[in-house]
Structures are given as structure tokens and as C-alpha cells.
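Task 17 of the worksheet. Students: predict the tertiary structure of the chain below and write it out as C-alpha cells. Keep your answer in the requested format; marks are given for formatting as well as content.
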Amino acid sequence: MSRRSHRDAAPTHNETASDGRAGTDVAVTRLLWLAGLWLGSRLVAGLLVAPFVDPGAPLSAGSLVVSQIPFWGVTVGGLWWMARREGERLSGFVRWGFAPQDLGVGLVAGFGLHWGVNLLYRVLENAGVSGDPSASARELVNASPGVLGKVVLVVMVAVGAPVVEEMYYRGVAQRTAMQLAEGTSAKSGLRHRWGAVAGLVAVAAFFALSHIATGADLIQLPGLTLVGVVLGGLVWRSGRLGPSIVAHGVFNLCSLLVLWGVSSPLLAG
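Model answer:
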């Protein structure tokens, strides 16, 4: 009977633990860079747009473009640099990818989120929780009249925002948080699964908090957290951003259509 070579031998417990610790170290470093990118992108974008946007004026489609394009540019540029630093292409680093079924899955999930979030706020309202989760979005829509304003909002809110946000939150931040929460546990173990869930929920909450600009926006936290959990689940299950980008875009588009007064059974949630 021939003996297996050292190269073909299964890794020992110590070797597996060592690999796990090395992966955790990489994840910790990546998390620190993500935190710096989150803060830095907002700081740089704020400095760049300060001469062009009046802080006291209502947010309009024009000011949205001026404020978001630099922010998105810095965010994507930072992710590209992080990918290069870890020896990966940007597409692989953010788990970019689309499959034919992603369109259908994303459409169902997006409309499902629209209905689910509406139902959540009806329950909260019946429980005595007050507030208008659509207030800031309504101000943006009201300040962006005309066909051009609507086109800009669709491109920015239903296309640009889902792409960039999914790259950052689900493509990199969620993967990093899940890796840290899982630790060095075996991939088939219970701790691994619960660690993945904890990382997913943590990033969903972070995603929700990142959208809060004023105290009045706090009412958005439950709905946005639910959105983050569902989008995170889509990426966790598929291993790529395709379904979450489509679902995110459909959900945002539904919100715009409702605020524009469009009537449809699909929007009646």
C-alpha cells in the first residue's frame, strides 16, 4: 500500500486553526480600512461639494448628483485600492457577478421588500410608533420636478445607489463581518452558521444607520434593517451581487413610484 505524500495529506487541526487565524487577521485589517473608507469618502465628498451645495437648501436632483458622484467615486476607488492591496481584482473582491436567474430573483425580492416594509410600518403604527419613514425621500421628490428631475432620480436612486452600496455593504463589509464572527470554527459547524448570521445582521444594521442624517430619520431604521437583512441573505445564498443589486434597485424604484403617485396593484402594499 502506498503512503500519501505530505502534500496530499489532510490539514491537521493546528494547521486549520492557523489558517483561520491568518484569515481573521486579514479580515480585521480589511475592517479597519472599510471604516476609514466610510469616514474618508464622506469627508472628501463633503469638502468637494461644499462650494456648490447650500447646506440649508432642500436636497434636489441636482444637488444629489453633485453630492453623490464624488462620494461614489471615492468609495469605488477605495474598494479598488483595497482589492489591489489583497491581490485581487475589484470584481472578485466585491463579489461582482450576474446570472440569468438574478433578474427574476431580484424582481421578486424587490417587490417583496416593498410590501414587507409597508407591512412592518403598519404594525409599528398600530403599536403606537409615530413618524414618517418617507419624509426625506418625499422632500427629495418634491424638490426634483419635471421629466429631467425624475430621470435623474431614477438613475441615481434606482441604479447608482444600489450598485455602489451593494459593492461596499454586501460585497465587502458583510463578507468581512461574517468572517470575523465565524472566527476559526469549522465551516460546517453551528458556530460558523450563527457567526455568519451575526455578521449579516450587523452589517444590515450598519447599512440602516448609515442612512440616518437627522433625528427624524430614525423611524427609517426598522425598515432599512429589514432591507439590509434580505439583501444580505441574497448575497450569502448566491455568492454574488447580482440578485441584491436588482432587488435594491426595484425596492428604491417602487418607493419613487409611490411618491410620484403611480397607482398599481404591485405598489399597493
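Marker's comment: The radius of gyration is 21 Å. Residues 1-19 have pLDDT under 50 and may be disordered.
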